[in-house]
Amino acid sequence: MQHMINKPIRILGGGISGLSAAITLADKEYAVELFEKSSYPGGRFIRNFQCLRNFGHNEIDAIDEIGKIGIYLKPYKNLYKIIRYSKSYNFEVSNDKKPIYYLLLRGRSEYSIDSQLAKYATNMGINIFYNKKIESNDITIVASGPSKADSLAYCEVYEDCNISDTGHVFLNKKYSPDGYIYVLPGPIKGEAILVICTTDSSFNFKKLKILLDQFKGEKDILKNIFYKSTQKSSQNCIGSCSLLSKPYVNNKYYVGEAAGLQDVTAGFGIRYAIYSGYFAAQSIIDKSNYNIQISKMFKSQLEFEHKRSIRFSKLTNDDIDKIFQKVNKEFGNKLNLEEYGSIRGMI
């Protein structure tokens, strides 16, 4: 028996949190209107490669777990190996049995997860309005991205790179204070993204770019990866990592980074975005308490990551070297996921 609600529920923001909410509502035959200020889904991003962590969640496969709530994602690549670097040491984390991370395309592409979900939403009868603003009083779910800039990231996408199916993460306080630099392979052979991020409020994007250029010119692994490569694009991004005390307030549900749902130490907000959108929709459907749901699902994890961030902010490069040296001494320079999980609280 159909019970389509006459007055549509309006969602501000056409990224993955807003689309997840829309799909969940439409599945229960609610009328939904979604408003995206850009001309394409996930308009915050031009062309961005992101990770979905596939460990640390009760060993459940991350893609399968999200699929159980009706949100289906298609990664462009499975990542089975990452290498983490301090100033003087490194160690590899690898797993042959399942991906450590799923790599997902964001932004302006028919293959991005934003476009995947938008296509699915449209097929469900959801009305998506692009290049259109709407009064906040008419909005029920706010999925408009970061509410404030707790972190900054500067990203560059390259082609013709010498990169394998491996991720690289660099911890170096001289070049990325209270942050990190990383490289991920892209969906096209030879494509890669290079990112520098920080939670240091004294930084700006111009300074981040200068530091990234310096680091890229000094680090041999990066010289090798980007030798004869061509830069295709660059982008400035902000992140909001401070969870709102009440993500549901004044008859509005705040989801994704609009609610401050972002992993401050790893920057992987995809899972948070999708589940917060889902929980907001479920709260509308079954009249459950959204604030309690968000607290139960995310609060302890966010608190753990914030504690990691505080510890990391106090470390010097010498301190980080000592931790990596200790890891090398205990495990060698190749760790499995269980071994890596045992040291995540340290670094």
Give a description of the structure:
- The protein has an eight-stranded mixed β-sheet with strand order 14-10-13-12-11-5-6-17. The protein has a six-stranded mixed β-sheet with strand order 8-2-1-9-16-15, with helices on one face. A three-stranded antiparallel β-sheet has the order 3-7-4, covered by helices on one side.
- The longest helix is centred in the last third of the chain and has 24 residues, at 290-313.
- It is built from nine helices and 17 strands.
- The model has no long low-confidence stretch (mean pLDDT 92).
- It folds into two domains: 1-45 and 110-148 and 241-314, 3-Layer(bba) Sandwich (FAD/NAD(P)-binding domain); 47-107 and 151-239, D-Amino Acid Oxidase, subunit A, domain 2 (D-Amino Acid Oxidase, Chain A, domain 2, 2-Layer Sandwich).
- Helix content is 32%, strand content 25%.
- It is globular.
- Helix 1 packs parallel to helix 3 (113-123) and helix 6 (270-286) runs antiparallel to helix 7 (290-313).
- It is of the alpha/beta class.
List the helices and strands and how they pair.
Elements: E1 9-12, H1 16-27, E2 32-36, E3 47-53, H2 62-67, E4 77-79, E5 81-85, E6 90-94, E7 101-107, H3 113-123, E8 127-130, E9 141-142, E10 151-159, E11 167-170, E12 179-185, E13 192-198, H4 205-218, H5 220-225, E14 230-239, E15 248-249, E16 252-254, H6 270-286, H7 290-313, H8 317-331, E17 334-335, H9 337-343
Parallel strand pairs: 1-2, 1-9, 2-8, 5-11, 6-17, 9-16
Antiparallel strand pairs: 3-7, 4-7, 5-6, 10-13, 10-14, 11-12, 12-13, 15-16
Helix pairs in contact: 1-3, 1-6, 6-7
